[in-house]
Amino acid sequence: MALQQIKFAPGIDRQDTSVGAVGRWTDSDLTRFRYGLPEKVGGWQSLLTDTIVGVVRKQFAFVDLDGNRYVALGTDKFLLVYFEGQLFDITPLKTSITGATLSTNSTTTVTITTSAAHNINEGDIVLFDSVTLPGGTGFSASDFEDKKFQVITVPTPTTFTITMGSAATGTVATGGSITLKPYEPVGPAAQNYGYGFGIGNYGGTITGVVQTELDGSLNADTAGTGGSGTAVTVDSTTDFPSAGTIAIANELITYTSKSSTQFLGITRGANGTATAGTSNGQAHSTNAVVQNATDFTGFGSAVKASTVTLEPGLWSLNSFGEVLVATILNGKTFTWNAGVANPTGNRASTTTSGFETSNNPTATRTTLISPTTRHLIHFGTEVTIGTPSTQDDMFIRFSADESINEYTIQATNTAGSQRLQDGTRIVGALVAKENILVWTDNALYTMKFVGAPFTFGFEQVGTNCGLIGQNAAVEIDGVAYWMSNNGFFSFDGTVNSLPCSVEDFVYDNIDTTKGQQITAGINNLFTEVLWWYPSSSSAFNDRSVVYNYGAKAPPGEMGNWYNNTNTNFNRTTWIDSLVYPKPYATAYNSSNTGTFPSIVGETGLGQSVFFEHEIGTDQINPDGSTTALLSFIQSYNFALQTDQGIGEYFLAMRRFLPNFKVLTGNNQVTISVSDYPSEDVTATTLSPFTITSSTTKVDTRARGRYANLKIENTGSGESWRFGTFQADLQPDGRR
User: Fold this and answer.
1) Most buried of the four, 77, 540, 594, 613, by CB within 10 Å?
2) Which residues pair with 709 in a beta bridge?
3) Where are the domains of the chain?
């Protein structure tokens, strides 16, 4: 028979069998489709010689009025800014603690003691200032002055330990003087289910357990309700353990017994949850929620049952002109002004001159700036500003227009609030054309400026289409794309389900309990929407799925999708080529140690690498070394078509003609065969075949009822775009 041309449609089909996916590719890695042809993705190179401490969870690029370009990077520990090829630490600080003392015991462990509860937790970062040391430690003040330390343990509410690079020369009782400047805590690196690490700003919530409300207020001291010092009065203690722990806002309170309406024998501020400046516990208003937290056994300790969901440390990053607005998940909102002299010498704060956020809610899930009216909008925030215990995950509050610190509702401003109904929590929000889109865990709402007296109008436009994670939605050209717990969706004025040809591959092996780690990005250079997600066997993102929105599919068809499992392509954030000419992304390795910022005693924080994408053909690492990017694509199992039908005869392939639109370096083509659909294909004896730009034809000997081809590169400096496949196919019997 003459040469036959085998045609393949763009996209990967993993929903069908390798025989049933007629005319499709069935597997790939680090491959995309351009003009309908498969090609290796572009390479990437590190933007820095430093690596970032911790895992980056959010990127945001913006430009100041002088045209200077910045990228803000929010990690699980820090807020950083990338400017002119350098990183700067702009993480906000909590209130300073003065007069702390130091003690040593002839080891690398140093104990810091404060006069009152410090409200510092294990893993927190603390900056040391104004250091004087007692004699006999063997350390100098310069070993501590203006250095950042990771808190290793918190033995009591007034002590914590750090680790030095060398051991003290002797045992020294408490002495000296240190000013402590704790960093605002962000949260853990990974989302966990069933671990009692912390609550409040760390995003911990107790679900599926009994709760009640305070009957009367609770003072910020050791006294219980009524000043007895031994009891907390609530509406009912029914279904609470006879002895255990309760949680009110950020505070844990232990009790030794209970009555029908009281927890007795209380100890306030358990496990270091007291507030600095109080005797032991925080102040709580009447009707504050009281939850059973008995399974909390201390920060970092496992609970008895999977009842606690601990969200990862996340940031919302926006710009108000040239001012960066940064919100910690379930925490405060800060600003950083790029328009002042030497901005990189300043930290983000709630008191940035002219852009204060001191009147903002102190517990918010996410924020954004409305594009035309410039309201600062808080989603999943406090009903009573400044009272974290009133945080309502479905409550929205917005500032007056052009005034990000004005929230008091008056006839003369446009501040206001709204509560959504469908769902249990607001997950995320973004701007799409004239609408602000707001997702709960179950529904999609539009939020549109309508003017006085309501300011914003809200409309529910979809249900059973909730967002899987805060960063799992993107918008391009007025269309939003997102990932839900049960599939992919788009919104262009109407909610549309996106049929996905790799859907089972994704959802059969995704860890949906880590939805807050999923990140989405746009690569408009190739009309791609990308989602990175953690597989069931990984604590962090290790796979990605891609939808090519430029390759329009007829309604109901599965479109142009492809997937990646290469661990070199594990990304935690991605920003498109708008402010910068190429996409920027971050990758995380939990096993390595970052180099910026410099943290004394750092343990287990991992490292992130900051990459520029679509550069060259390989991965260029921070140390300048090269890692080859190995890509491949594999076809469906095709059979010989004769007058007697498809697959009636075995096929014999004698030769094929390689056809590449682009080929740099070498490429390998493997021909594999099988006799029956249920059998695995086996590479033919002569495979793989090395293809170069000068290869005109390849002689082969392949026999089977079915055959497929695999195209791949195996080394650095290699790139390719495949065209068509022409092969000499002849019938070779029925047996």
Assistant:
1) 77
2) 671
3) 3-41+630-731, 97-182, 192-310
